[in-house]
Amino acid sequence: MAAGGALCGSREGSAGLWNWNQTWYTNTPRFTWCFESTVVAWIPCAYLWICFPFYYLYLRHKTKGYIRMSHIFKAKMVLGFILVILYFSNVFFVLWEISQGIPRAPAFFISPAVVGITMILAMFLTQAERMMGIQSSGILLIYWLLSFMAAVVMLSSKVQHALERGFLEDHFRHVTTYLYVSLVLGELVLFCLVDHPPFFSKAVNSPNQCPEASTSFLSKITYWWFSGLVWKGCQQSLKVDDLWPVRKEDSSEEIVAWAEREWKKCHSRTQQKVRSATFKKGQKSETGIAEAEETEVLLQSEHSQSRPLLKVFWSMFGTYFLLSTVCLVICDVFLFSIPKLLSLFLEFIEDQEAPSWHGYFYAFTMFLLACLQTLFEQRYMYMCLVLGLRLKTALTGLVYRKILVMSSASRKAATVGEIVNLVSVDVQKLMDLIIYFNGTWLAPIRIIICFVFLWQLLGPSALTSIAVFLFLLPLNFMITKKRSQFQETQMKHKDERAKLTNAILSDIKVIKLYGWEKTFTEKVLGIRKQELQALKRSQILFSASLASFHSSTFLIAFVMFAVYTLVDNTHVLDAQKAFVSLTLINILNSAHSFLPFSINAAVQAKVSLRRLAAFLNLEELNPESSSRNTSDCVQGSIIIRNGTFCWSKETSPCLRRIDLTVPQGSLLAVVGQVGAGKSSLLSALLGELEKTDGCMIMKDTAAYVPQQAWIQNASVEDNILFGKEMNETWFNRVIGACALQPDLESFPAGQKSKIGEKGINISGGQKQRVNLARAVYQKASIYLLDDPLSAVDAHVGQHIFEHVLGPNGLLKDKTRVLVTHTINILPQVDNIVFLVDGTISEIGSYQELLQRNGAFAEFLHSHITAEEQAGTGFPALGDTKGTITSRSGLSQERLFSGNSVKSSAMEMETIPASQDSTTAAATKGGLMKGEKTQHGRVNTSIYVAYLKATGLPLCVYTILLFTCQQAVSFSRGYWLSMWTDDPVHNRTQQHTELRVGVFGALGVIQALGRFASTAAVLLGGVLASHKLFLQLLRNVARSPMVFFEQTPIGNLLNRFSREMDAIDSVIPDKLKSLLGFLFNLLEIYLVIIVATPRAAMAIVPLTVLYAAFQHFYVITSCQLRRIEAASRSPIYSHISETFQGSSVIRAHKAQERFILKSNFLVDENQRICFPGAVADRWLATNLEFLSNGIVLFAALFAAMGRTHLSPGTAGFSISYAFQITGVLNWMVRSWTEIENNIVSVERVREYLRTPKEAPWTLNGKLQGQVWLNEGKIEFRNYSLRYRPNLELALKHVNLTINGQEKVGITGRTGAGKSTLAVGLLRLVEAAEGAILIDGLDIAQLGLHDLRTKITVIPQDPVLFSGSLRMNLDPLNQYTDADIWTALELTQLKNFVADLPDQLEYKCTDQGENLSTGQKQLVCLARALLRKAKILILDEATAAVDLETDLQIQSTLRTQFKDSTVLTIAHRINTVMDCDRILVLENGRIAEFDALEHLIAQKGLFYRLMEESGLA
User: What is the pLDDT of residue 1498?
Assistant: First the structure.
């Protein structure tokens, strides 16, 4: 006060610096003149001067180009200039007054001088901002806001002064004050506006850039700049192009480059430490000092491999993270100031003497603090999410770049799945940590502060809350432990079910052929029943844990209030104590529940960080392993001198003492037994192996064709061009030479046709040829070819050799190193290297090596003998590989081919529209139907369908339970308010025991109600999920084969796993939350309206606004989530593609292009994630402002009506109003989650409407066993097409096959051999005509009746995981004796008898624990058991050795001599002993006669024999 006196003098009315009576205890409050002139006026000045140095430094660093002088800027400067003049005129006026002898205190001229100088600083900053390109300034906006508030304070006191004493007393100061207020208001309005965008900005000025940068400060902190996108999302369905491109500071280009620099720095430091320690060890091992040091370093590398990675993140994002933490701390300060204000407000309600303005002051201050808390909390969340996205970009980039430099040893240490997990799961864990990390230290502090405040209110009774926590902890622990056991059981059954479903869908064709659908669906349902049983138990426990969690607030309050009031009679529970305690307990509870999440997030992130660091520290390729030399002084294209190579430093060498010179333009063949090191030699040439000795030189560029064809998920054209420019002529020559022309013609969109992931929709031969075409198109100098002829037909191999690799091929002038098993081409190569156990055994031309009669000649001899035994007759070894293989390794022209696209390699007469590819029009070049993306809001009918599945009575019962539970909750709160209003006699309250008892009873009833209502929703979810699963399973099982050919198996598995998972657990959980919050909200509204009925006027419009925000948010957010989900998988596919093809990418030096693609994909994903994150902040900010508004009105109306309002009712109303923020937020979240997940119900029900196949059984159609006793088959004018819009695959076939006749069916690829069998088994229905078996039209039969009477032995044996007995007899129709007889006939009896469980022996998935030959024999035994009159053989000898082959043939001849046998032949020699041979061409019968007649005719069959070298 003395200071105030010195500064302000003892002027009358100044009353020193502070006067309580003048400011607080009065109905017309105002500050003293001295306080106004100094403290109030200087607060804005102090703020600006404190911010100035930091802000100026920031501006110097963050230049964004400069802004031209705009009208806004000029107006700001003019107003500022006038303000400076105004203030300095005040200073001069005071000096003039003093000179006139009027005494003036120092404050009179110090204060305007300080303000005036600060105004000059503000103008300087305004100019600096313009030069640095700042369009809207937060710092200055806050300064002008504070100045305006100070000006308003001065204005109000001047107005009061004028009213009391008249205006004329000091008119100069009156006028300047009014002018000052209006000018500051002008400045404030101008600073709310946005200036023009800067010139020469480094930021890309795209028309669609993110509006955040160019929006006002107010819009930034409230996220209103996002409203445009929300509005757009409601008007139309959003596409990626509607979203803003990634901001430059968030782009992969910036962030990954930065991360790489930091990682290299940290990584090299760590490496140096290790090296220096090792070096020291070598120097001083005698002293033993260095040994300890090295151990320390190694231990450290074991534990803290992750430390360098942490340092990288800290150096990149540390400052930004600390800033966000500051926001959170400020937010917490506001959070705890609100209960204090509530306490003062309730004091005011109680004290009828207090001036009424106190109430309004408290109400508005609570509102202001709550709004500030909202802004800081949302800014914290926003900064964490932006940081999370940047971290994701950095890590994905680092992992991706690592994939391109991993050594072979590292590739063994990490699988594709693990790498994709690093990028998807582990990165997500680190992103979660950013949000939760501060909880690990802030939550305990919050808890401590809550206890301190509670102690102040209730004394030692506050400590009893600790006892409640200690009681609840073991209870929750037990529930969680038990629940996790049930979840484990459920997961086990879920995995089992997924495995079985996968097996069924993969081999659906076999299941349909044998008519086993019913058996398998029952098996799935059996597992599903157990799974739902476990889920049910888990959900009941979940309801119990939720009830205990929600009751903890009540329990703590109950115990504290009971102890407080019952221990001492004089303890009075008034409104202030009760309702402030409740508010604090709510804060305590949220902190207490946040803590385990934070600790869990930290633990998981630590593991993820370690995994990421371990991956990034894996061994890399040594760039010196291969030197590319372009000088001409070297004689050969490739030279290796005494080279020794190994896969990694730890393993023994795989190539030893290699001396090799390959002259320019020569063709070198590398041959040897399996495992001799042929592929290793190519890897060594590519620099993929570790070179331990010798030297190697390769001149110029290389192209590489790996043995396992590597295909990108792109169009055929993109696969071949591989980043090169398109040259039509050269492209066509390459296509022709690689025998791809006929394939391209059969594809729906030709060369633009999209190939699926890993080439899923093209055959193995096509993959290999595309692979070869890619290399040829590159026009490299050196070609390294790893057995490119292995996967193609013999005649295609011949064509490729002649046109591409051979002496007259496209590559005749290039240096070619060809690893091959195809012996017949060896005479045409320049040189041959023969490898034995990693060393070069012989080298020379074909003739030289034969003359030497060494290891090579022996190898050649053994191979030729083997071929003759196999009876191929064609001198090419490649032929034994069969035809072009399709996606599951099946031959391409099989009845049981997967979703391969049928196309012939060489003949032009391919079936015009391939059977499994949809029409070009339908798919625009894709070969399969993709997933549909949903748009807009979900149809109401889906919700209705879900509720119907739950059952109407249960729905009604649930709603009733929720209503009762909330009514009890309301009664409990109301009872507490009555308790606090109990009058106090002799410092004690009456009926305390009754009050405590009823309060406790109501709480217990509410907890039980909460448990019952939650359990009702969750168990309803289990019911619904059971019904929906049943529908899905039945619909899929009843679908025809065409459906499975068009629908990718992934889509179906997705329905059975992910979508069902959402229906099992996510939807019921969110529905429970939504109902809980909805009834909670209704209760809060009821409380506020009961306490202050007039608040209804405010609540109604605010609720309408809330509904509008919710509506807009849900539509946009759901769309953003759908687009985001779609943009994630390309990143993972690209990673897996790169991992598989890294050697090809490196060989072609295409790393940079792939890195750019990865950057692009990550940026596209971030482009969608960013608006998604902002949408959440936009919603939360707006909703919290609304709920703060509701709190404000509840408090205002309570303050207005305090004369007839008890403190208890006011506390009841306002403490409930505080909960509204969380309730509104969570309600929308739950609703959005339901919207996003209810789509699963839509997708599961999608197959209700797809076409179904004919009935499985038709009652009364089969007269006992009379039908099918002869096996005579007649085709009458039979035609078949695979789908309505395709051409006929079989055209007007007329044909009679007699009973017991053996008929071979042959013809070229695509002639319709398999289609004949497809028609016979009605996998596809006839287009016209009919098939009669023993005189009965098969179209009149049930599908199972037909299919169980015909047996098929597929070319690829199909076994399911389960017992051997189940595989032989899934329908349980035969006795064990029958089964043993069948096993004896197939010579499996001894093998099965020796197995541990004999018939109960468990076959693994696909029967992988049996050899292919054994599987084939099991399938044969299965056929023998059925003993059908018609047998269809899809030539089954390709997979077995010669001995087994002969065995199968003889068994078939003896056991099926009374049956009609149709053999579909892929190799002519297998049908030589048939009674008659049917030759098909283009879906028509070309010839049908006995073998000798066909040879005599010299027709098509004879030509086929010639091509196979049999004629």
Answer: 77
What's the CA gap between 1065 and 1507, in Å, rounded? Answer: 61
Query: pLDDT digit string (tens) for 1403-1415?
Result: 666 656 666 667 7
Beta carbons of 1501 and 928 less than 8 angstroms apart: no
Secondary structure percentages of the chain, helix, strand, coil, to 5:
65, 10, 25
DSSP 1337: E
Name the burial class of residue 807, with classes exposed (0-12), middle (13-18) and buried (19+) by CB atoms within 10 angstroms of its CB.
exposed
**Burial of 1152: CB neighbours in 10 Å, binned 0-12, 13-18, 19+:** exposed
Instruction: Give the pair of three-digit tokens for residue 965.
Output: 């539970």
pLDDT score of 178: 85
**Could you tell me how many residues make up the chain?**
1511
Amino acid code (one letter) for 1222: G
What pLDDT digit, counting tens, does each position of 956-980 carry?
988 999 899 889 988 988 888 888 8
Amino acid at 906: M
Is the CB of residue 1461 less than 8 Å from the CB of residue 1302?
yes
For 1147, what's the count of Cα atoms within 13 Å in the CB-facing half-sphere? Answer: 25
Amino acid sitting at position 903: S
Backbone φ and ψ for 1194, nearest 5 degrees, come out as -60, -45
Q: What does 104-124 look like in DSSP terms, one character per residue?
A: --THHHHHHHHHHHHHHHHHH
**CA–CA distance, 282 with 1285 (Å, rounded to integer):** 78
Element (H, E) at 218: helix 217-222
- Which helix (H) or strand (E) segment holds residue 782: the answer is strand 782-786
What is the C-alpha separation between 513 and 515, in angstroms, rounded? 6
DSSP type of residue 825: G
**For residues 1137 and 581, what is the distance between their CA atoms, to the nearest angstrom?**
59
DSSP string, 659-716: EEEEETT-EEEEEESTTSSHHHHHHHHHT-SEEEEEEEEEES-EEEE-SS----SSBH
Distance CA 212, CA 246 (A): 12
CA distance 1295 to 1307: 16
In a 10 Å sphere around its CB, with 0-12 CB exposed, 13-18 middle and 19+ buried, how is residue 1421 labelled?
A: buried
CA-CA-CA-CA torsion sign (522, 527, 530, 535) = negative
Written as six digits, the tokens of 388 are 């999370």
Q: What is the pLDDT of residues 299-348, one digit of tens each?
A: 444 456 778 888 888 988 998 999 999 999 999 999 889 888 888 888 88
Determine contact, residues 503/1361, Cβ cutoff 8 Å. Answer: yes
CB atoms within 10 A of CB 67: 21
How far is residue 828's CA from residue 192's CA, in Å, rounded to a whole number? 83
